């Protein structure tokens, strides 16, 4: 399987590719504000194709006759300079005017674009007219919302998400046939040998790889066996480890009503964590108020890290290199540090990140 860290570089490469492709699409008179020639579409290309399960397969500017919602395309033709709106199957997609010339449009198709029993139509509205163009519109790649991160071999697990249309499920490179599936839920039996591997789901439009590796969760709907103990510096703080009203991954999270400068600590069973496999701690955190917390690993106050978060879910990675390069993991502590008397914090998807 392709290393997940390489996937994080895709956005950078993608933006660079867009700039090159757009410049190559422009003729010397494309800067005209009124456009040139008639309104026409001569072709559509997928800006980037990159299967996360295959190394070295990345392609750019690939001609296609299918639009998959949620992806980025280059539409070529003429008369685009005065573009006012662009829609697919009746739903408008927002466009960046700086990525539109008279002969090319770079557009990220709205993920919510309808695709079932629709007219399969691209519609362009410009100052020189309106064009309807026939093109097949299909669903986005799968969206994985939740799954048990530390399952046992033989468990029947449920994967929740969206766009599970004819899904193919892989645990690393191990393909598993679904027991049952719908557009939003898949049930599968966990195979052997999944530790340090990632879940991936492929539908008719593409493949999505879950960022969490199997066995890496410290908290996933509940504390896992990686936890040795847990508690609060001040027992008067509220502490709910089965909060269901707002979660990031799965169905439950931690809700901590933290007093000012109070702490929450989690002891780790070091015998169950192979530090040679991991590079960081991950956590998704959300505050009732925008604020900060301090992360302390193994009680090392000489190498703490500040965590900033908003009143929406914020994903944080704490590299071990920032907290003293520990050779074993025994305890992780979070101290509220907003300096305004405390905060209510939600914590979810708490675990480790593979190298």
TrEMBL record:
Query: Where does the IPT/TIG domain lie?
Result: 149-214
Query: Per UniProt, what is one Pfam family of this protein?
Result: TIG
Q: Signal sequence: where?
A: 1-22
Record keyword Signal present: yes
InterPro entries attached here? Galactose-bd-like_sf, Ig-like_fold, Ig_E-set, IPT_dom
Enumerate the UniProt keywords alphabetically.
Signal
This protein is called what?
IPT/TIG domain-containing protein
* Organism of provenance: Flavobacterium hydrocarbonoxydans
């Amino acid at each position: 399987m392709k290393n997940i860290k390489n996937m994080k570089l895709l956005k950078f490469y993608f933006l660079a590719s867009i700039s090159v492709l757009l410049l190559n699409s422009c003729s010397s008179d494309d800067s005209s504000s009124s456009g040139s020639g008639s309104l026409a579409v001569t072709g559509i290309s997928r800006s980037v194709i990159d299967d996360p399960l295959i190394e070295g397969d990345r392609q750019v500017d690939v001609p296609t006759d299918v639009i998959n919602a949620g992806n980025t395309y280059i539409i070529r033709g003429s008369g685009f300079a005065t573009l006012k709106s662009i829609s697919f199957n009746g739903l408008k997609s927002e466009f960046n005017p700086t990525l539109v010339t008279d002969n090319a449009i770079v557009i990220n198709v709205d993920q919510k674009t309808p695709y079932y029993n629709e007219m399969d139509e691209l519609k362009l509205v410009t100052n020189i007219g309106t064009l309807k163009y026939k093109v097949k519109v299909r669903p986005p790649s799968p969206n994985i919302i939740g799954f048990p991160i530390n399952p046992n071999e033989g468990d029947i697990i449920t994967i929740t998400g969206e766009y599970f249309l004819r899904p193919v499920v892989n645990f690393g490179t191990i393909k598993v046939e679904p027991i049952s599936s719908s557009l939003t839920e898949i049930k599968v039996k966990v195979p052997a040998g999944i530790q340090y591997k990632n879940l991936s789901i492929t539908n008719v439009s593409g493949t999505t790889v879950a960022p969490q590796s199997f066995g890496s969760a410290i908290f996933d709907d509940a504390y896992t066996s990686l936890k040795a103990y847990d508690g609060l510096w001040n027992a008067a703080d509220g502490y709910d480890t089965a909060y269901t009203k707002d979660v990031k991954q799965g169905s439950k999270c931690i809700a901590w009503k933290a007093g000012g400068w109070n702490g929450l600590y989690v002891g780790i069973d070091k015998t169950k964590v192979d530090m040679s496999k991991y590079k960081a701690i991950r956590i998704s955190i959300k505050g009732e108020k925008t604020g900060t917390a301090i992360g302390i690993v193994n009680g090392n106050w000489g190498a703490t890290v500040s965590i900033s978060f908003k009143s929406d879910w914020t994903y944080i990675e704490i590299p071990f290199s920032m907290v003293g390069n520990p050779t074993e993991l025994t305890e992780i502590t979070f101290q509220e540090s907003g300096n305004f008397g405390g905060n209510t914090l939600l914590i979810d998807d708490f675990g480790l990140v593979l190298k």
